[in-house]
Amino acid sequence: SPVSLRRLPSHQPSSSSCPPLSSTALPDKPCFCPQEEFNDKPDSLFFNDGVRRIDFILVYEDEDKKDFEKRHTFQRRKLNSLCLLQVVDEKLMFVKVHMPWEVLCTYAEVLHIKLPIQPNDLSSRPSPWRFFSCITKHFYPNEELITKESEFFTAPFEKDRLEYFYIKDKDLFFTPSMRSRMAYYILSRAPYEIRGHIKKFGITKLLDGGVYKAAYPLHDCRFNVRSTEEDCPNERFVLYEEWAHPKSFYKMQPLDLIRKYYGEKIGIYFAWLGFYTKMLALAAVVGLGCFIYGYKTQETSTWSKEVCDPEIGGKIVMCPQCDRFCKYWRLNSTCEASKKLCIFDNFGTLVFAVFMSIWVTLFLEFWKRYQAELEYEWDTVEFLEQEEPPRPEYEAKCIYERKNPITGVKEYVPFTTCGRCVRVSIGIGTVLFWILLILASIVAITVYRLAVFFVFSTKLRTQEIKELEPFKEYVTPQMATSVTASLISFVVIMILNILYERLPRTKSEYENSLTLKMFLFQFVNYYSSCFYIAFAKGKAVGYPKEPVYLLGKYRNEECDPGGCLIELTTQLSIIMGGKAIWNNIQEVLIPWVKNLIFRYCTRVPSQKVIPRWEQDYQLQPLPKLGLFYEYLEMVIQFGFVTLFVASFPLAPVLALVNNLFEIRVDAWKITTQFRRVVPEKAQDIGAWQPILQGIAILAVATNAMIIAFTSDMIPRLVYYWSFSVYPYGNHPNNTMEGYINSSLSIFNTSDFSDFSKPEQSNSSLIISTCRYRDFRFPPGHPRQYEYNGYYWHVIAAKVAFIIVVEVIYFLKFVLSYVIPDVPYSVKEQIKREKYLTQVILHETNLKAAPCEPLTELRPKIKYGL
């Protein structure tokens, strides 16, 4: 029986009954080594013998007897192939886990880990940037610290054919990340309680129940101090210096080293984030050029000059935008807002929207190619085709027996058909409830807009708000309402986001299902207010005689005479900027403060040498969802950059600046503030890929709709080109002079209803007519207040524009077909690797094996659990 897991005095001499590393036979009994004294090497990754490597650490407090029984069962069953060492540290017990060679070979085959069989003999194509190496070398990590690794053809490991694999050194054949991944695979399936047919197992359940305090692989050194140990590669130190340190913000990411140290799942995230950021640089340059063009032309724009002109805009009296208490106002009071609108609503914006529709397609197609290269280089090409092990949490719930309709073999599933329907219904109901809650908040904010606009319209125009009197020239009711409503909307978004994330969820909802549910909630939460401003506000307001009312009480909100685009721009800038600042502060401060508090509460004498496993225990564990929220944050940002870019060309610039910080913040956080994560395999970015494709398709439609129905671009183009044929006014052809006057209809103030008629002011000025934004016949016309011919020409032009944009949508599929998902060179290497695997591992054995009768052949049963 195993030795008792009890506290041992710190002065007890070291001893070990574990088999040596070279042992090829699995021990029959669990191997619990007595405590060994610490060798005062803070960065040592080995047992005291300097041979056995520490592959995993378990931490617990030996107080609860019930927990002791679970730990005893857990460490006695299924862990007899590992070497465990108990270490005492006053309050905590640290269990060192070591994987012997035979166990490594066995589980490398179980997990289908691909390992080298032969150096890559295919010549690589020279980089097109090699001629600029004297410049580009400064943007790459230091080659002296991060050397380029040799390329190999690989194949799934088979321990019976060990001699065919490229093994130089047994100690280095399996990398530390492979060893910790195999150790975690065993720990996640070791049982701790068996009662009849019910079996409870897995380190995750024990961690959730508090039986163990922590379970983690070790970092190889301190992040800011190079280790002096001979066998330490100092990869964490190198990653910090060349990747996570703020001084390296301009350098390319060492993706191969990231993948080697943290695994493919984290590596693919940083690869995608880096690729997205590089592609954003092109969009940011074009968007910044569009913004500069708008900024330079705002003073010379004909329509803004007419609004600000005292002889034009100063003489145009606008109708009140609310009932009774709102006053008449002059058009030139919106002079500054009109200039700001011209920055974002100009002909350059139209070109930029078309460019972004093509950019988003190129981004996704080139990412597929780059992802295919990483799949080959990181040995994940056939990852999903192999027998990927099921999650332990899924296996634990498999208690219902059924017959597999394909194989005919009995198997266990976690739910019956009825149970699955109930779970799906509950999940859909929960998501719908939160979406309805978001929509209710949007309605509440809309009511706030209407009420506050009424207050600002009545008080600001009568100078009752003394504090704003110096800014009266720049602050309009529309702007004041827009800014305050956007700020409130941002606060509501963040509150709902926090509440939704706090909902209890289990790992059985992972990962694609959880991704879709969470993105659906975030999509409605972040974008609903933007969709309202872009496609609902000001679209159904009627005209002064017959305005449209919301909820039968509030008069529907109108747009500024220049349109709603400036308000959409304000909403986007506040949400994008506020979200980026909040997330970066949160990601930096929270783990740093937690570690600071933990270190303060567990202070040790300064002269004490802290071993590697205790240093890592003082760090924060990576959240269970891993990098899920980092992906979600970037995908939401991608939506802002693509869905509404026609109204905010600076969105790619803001996203680029944020991502340059995001890469280094995530790198700093994962390298310095978190324990080393268990490496996981990943072939791609998972369910986020189809979500990005869906956003890209939707982006073409939303930008076309924004330009057609939110922007004033189409009416301006119609006015510019059509008056030589359709003379709706007296002005020189092919100029924008007189556009403001033509875009405002005339209303006779005597036609106001008793409810909406504004109260007469003390002014002696009698106003007989006022203007409003629409295309209707004037009073006295046989069809007064009905839509005129110009209105129908504008509608036809908008529909025609949307149809033309469909050509761009078609171009997306053409580009998808023309650009292959997998580069030709990668296809060659994959075929070469499969050929070598067939020749080296299979055909050689077939030639050497004697012929046997067909009846004697039996399927080989692999080592299982």
Automatic annotation (TrEMBL):
Residues 1-23 are annotated as: Disordered. It comes from the Eukaryota. GO terms for molecular function: chloride channel activity; protein dimerization activity. Residues 258-833 form the Anoctamin transmembrane domain. It is found in: Cell membrane; Membrane. The chain crosses the membrane at residues 269-295, 347-367, 431-456, 476-499, 519-536, 634-657, 691-711, 790-811. Signal peptide: none annotated. Residues 46-255 form the Anoctamin dimerisation domain. This is Anoctamin. The lineage of its organism: Eukaryota, Metazoa, Chordata, Craniata, Vertebrata. The gene is ANO6.
